[in-house]
Design goal:
Blueprint lengths: L2 H6 L1 H13 L2 H8 L3 H15 L4 E3 L4 E3 L1 H22 L5 H6 L3 E7 L1 H8 L3 H7 L3 E7 L13 E5 L7 E9 L1 E5 L1 H7 L13 E2 L9 E5 L5 E5 L9 H9 L4 E5 H10 L3 E3 L4 E3 L4 E8 L6 H14 L2
Parallel strand pairs: 3-4, 3-5, 8-11
Antiparallel strand pairs: 1-2, 5-14, 6-14, 7-11, 7-12, 9-10, 9-13
Helix pairs in contact: 2-3, 2-4, 2-5, 3-4
Length: 308
């Protein structure tokens, strides 16, 4: 396919994305000022060019095919880049291109938002007065394209397909307990001894009761724990540990202050506590070639503040 031919298809790609976003050919046609039949012909022309069906058409609704979902993600990137270019026209290309501005939508897990991201906001907003930030705090996996998210922070081995990624920092989980609890119940010398302790764990599914451990040299095991207080929020488990309710599984950055003050003590520090919530935290953003200034300065801010 020639480059010129690809450029000719850009209006059809834009119409296809509009149809998906509007939910119907008629609604997209009204927005574009064309007839529904014209909008339908544009999408059909794109399907013929790509030699795949993008939409399943029924009398009630439209449904994206698997190929359509992939095409829609790329069309969204194209439109997002186009909107960024058009936004430069407000006050001159050179000045606008170098001045971060606009709304920045950021998604990240609850504990990371509270302990790592939120403390950075006052300085960032003061430094960039033309940038507004919407922090979307959720532990679910968001769709950056469908939900118009500029950047998400996720823990994983690598960026998922279709997203650009930059490593931010490595997260570690650890076990902690109050000195009073350890005086009363003793400190476990081996993970197997946790079965006799009251443990504070996540509790979102049965696997959260099965704590995994690894040790340098190859030893690894899983221990099924129990406890009288289960909470799916790290700050609540932190408070429970501080009040002597048991041995808590916590992100290291959540427990750091209490450990430094001596209000909590590490438990089984010579073992690695392996969880799905430990590993590399990635900065993920749509894989456009153009990175908006507001996103670039936000990434630089996070990396400078947290990479160490």
């Amino acid at each position: 396919m020639s480059i010129n031919y690809s450029f000719d298809a850009l209006p059809d790609m834009a119409m296809f994305a509009s149809v998906v976003e509007a939910g119907s050919f008629s609604a997209a046609a009204r927005q574009a000022g064309v007839s529904p039949s014209a909008a339908s012909r544009q999408v059909a022309r794109l399907e013929a060019l790509l030699r795949v069906r993008l939409l399943e058409r029924t009398t009630r609704k439209l449904r994206l095919t698997e190929a359509g979902a992939a095409a829609y993600a790329h069309c969204q990137q194209m439109l997002a880049a186009a909107r960024e270019v058009m936004a430069l026209s407000d006050s001159g290309l050179a000045d606008k291109a170098s001045a971060p501005s606009g709304l920045l939508r950021v998604s990240c897990p609850k504990a990371i938002a509270r302990h790592l991201i939120h403390p950075l906001m006052p300085a960032f907003l003061a430094q960039y007065p033309q940038v507004d930030v919407q922090l979307i705090v959720t532990d679910r996996t968001v769709d950056l394209y469908q939900e118009a998210i500029d950047l998400a922070i996720r823990v994983g081995d690598a960026p998922p397909p279709g997203l650009a990624g930059r490593p931010l920092l490595r997260l570690r989980h650890m076990l902690c307990a109050s000195p009073a609890y350890l005086r009363q119940h003793g400190a476990p010398a081996h993970p197997r001894e946790l079965a006799g302790h009251s443990c504070l764990y996540l509790g979102e599914d049965e696997r959260d009761r099965h704590w995994r451990f690894a040790k340098r040299g190859g030893e690894a095991l899983v221990v099924k724990v129990k406890g009288r207080y289960v909470a799916n929020h790290s700050e609540l488990r932190l408070e429970g540990a501080l009040h002597g309710l048991g041995i808590a599984s916590l992100p290291e950055f959540v427990a750091r202050e209490a450990l430094a003050s001596g209000d909590l003590l590490p438990v089984l520090a010579d073992w690695e506590h392996v969880t799905d919530y430990a590993g590399m935290a990635w900065l993920l953003y749509p894989s456009n070639r153009f990175v908006a200034p507001k996103l670039r300065v936000w990434i630089d801010c996070l990396v400078a503040a947290l990479a160490d």
